[in-house]
Amino acid sequence: MRLPYVADPPRAQTSHEAQILARVQERRAPGSLLPLDRALLHSFSVADGWNSFLGAIRTGTSLSPVIREVIICRVAILNGAIFEWDHHAPILLQAGFKDEALQVLRDKHADLASSTQQGTLSPCIEVVLRYTDAITTTITVADDLFTMVRELFSTREIVEITATIAAYNCVSRFLVALDIGEKNSAA
Question: Cross-referenced Gene3D superfamilies, in alphabetical order (predicted)?
Answer without folding.
Answer: AhpD-like
